Amino acid sequence: MSLSNDFPKSVAPSALSASILAAMSIAAFSVSAQAGVTAAGRNAEGQSAVPSDLATANVIAVSAGRTHSVALLADGSVRAWGEASDGRIDVPAGLRAVAIDAGAYHSLAITDSGSVVGWGYDGARLLSIPADLASGESRAIAISAGKFHSLALKADGTVVGWGSNVGGRAAAPFGLAGVVGISAGGSHSLAVKNDGTVVAWGVNEDGQCDVPEGLNDVVAVSAGLSHSVALKSDGSVVSWGRGSEGQLGSLSGAVAISAGDYHTVALTAAGGLVSTGDNASGQRNLPASGVSAASAGGQHSLAVTSSGPVITAQPQPQTVLPGSDVVLSVSANNADSFQWYFNNGAIDGATSATLNLSGVSFANAGSYSVAVSGSGGTTWSQDALVIVRSLQRIAAPEMLADGRIRLTFGDTLGAALVYGAETRFTVQASYDLESWFDTELALVWVNGSVQMEDELDSQAPAKFYRVVEQ
């Protein structure tokens, strides 16, 4: 079960990332463009029988499902092996992808044109991808395939789910926004927000949705079958939910995480792997060094091994106001050169470990990543989403027949606000433009804008309003 943030050099890393910050897989794992695949664990269905040519191919991402495996190559092609029932290894002909994720019985990919495709088992409407995502009309920047449901993260920071919604696993909480990473597990879902907090929803019979109180500073999440894992910026790993197989064991010094059915693996800055949980099938017996990516599946695991640089500090997502300065940086061992990318294209002259963006506008909003090269190969960073908050403009007030006033506001540049966006805003009022107070009036989304209605105050000569985004 895996989600990749990493992109073939032929199409370049972009905002079509499979996850801004991790999620059920190698999403936060950096991977080399000169790498092969190794596997460990159960092989009854052939899921650990890596095709011989992939041992030395330019593999840039791997994803372990329950009984099948998927790999993304540097040319954008996708390979799958393992159990063939339900078409789960029948990769669509001609697919060129920038991200992959294998669920229990199906797989998802983001194509190089920005659309989402799926293949495999279609029970519970697992492959009923929303039309705007299937067509590429809405850009997915992350995908995650669970057991009987799927998730996608849109470029506006909202989450869409489909498939089974038993227990609420597919339907993101109303108003959830500012999301930078997602992960679909067995019957629950996780999201990490741009403020470093975690949101969980779905079935909670093992406590997998009971996010530890006070958990913050999170940079990656990964949902297993019935446990959850979060990676903090200091390299510590926090986990909760089912732990009877030891999958909640202590891990530290991590730069990436991946939760399988009953085990968890983590990549260290030195290119090693540490793990906890079930090892009955040898699924934790992965290489101890030279690893640049890994993915924990059902009862098997996959790893990408190479001699490329190991990224020790990933570029982080940021949410800013127009006109702000943004600094993105990366740290890596054995790195000789750097090349930054923005929305699928190389940035001219951006060849250092730090990228400085001055006075950003909406044109700078999108996904940034960096290719780190050394004598042993090239390693792609995870994508970092830069969200430039939209300033709001209140239209001229409308007088209603009952004597009230209606105010409508929306994006200053005319972009439609997504449904549920009203939960992000508070309207404040003032009589003197100095002292402001919350109106506590109901906000309603209407055709891409937000409306509110207020009573006229006949005792005040004037009343002013402003919109505050949370």
What are the defining features of this structure?
disordered N terminus, seven-stranded mixed β-sheet, 470 residues, Methylamine Dehydrogenase, Chain H, Immunoglobulin-like, five-stranded antiparallel β-sheet, globular, 43% strand, mainly beta, 1 helix, 3 domains
How is this structure best summarized?
The protein is mainly beta.
Name the quaternary structure.
single chain
How far do the termini sit from each other? Answer: 34 Å
Number of strands: 40
Overall average residue pLDDT = 85
Count of folded domains:
3
Globular, elongated, flat, extended or rod-shaped: what is the shape? globular
Total of DSSP H or I helical runs spanning 4+ residues: 1
Low-confidence stretches: 1-34
Describe the protein in words.
The chain is an all-beta fold and 470 residues long. It folds into three domains: 31-310, Methylamine Dehydrogenase, Chain H (7 Propeller), CATH 2.130.10.30; 311-388, Sandwich (Immunoglobulin-like); 392-469, Immunoglobulin-like (Sandwich). The protein is built from one helix and 40 strands. A hairpin with a 3-residue loop joins strand 12 and strand 13. The longest helix is centred in the N-terminal third of the chain and has 5 residues, at 131-135. The two termini are 34 Å apart.
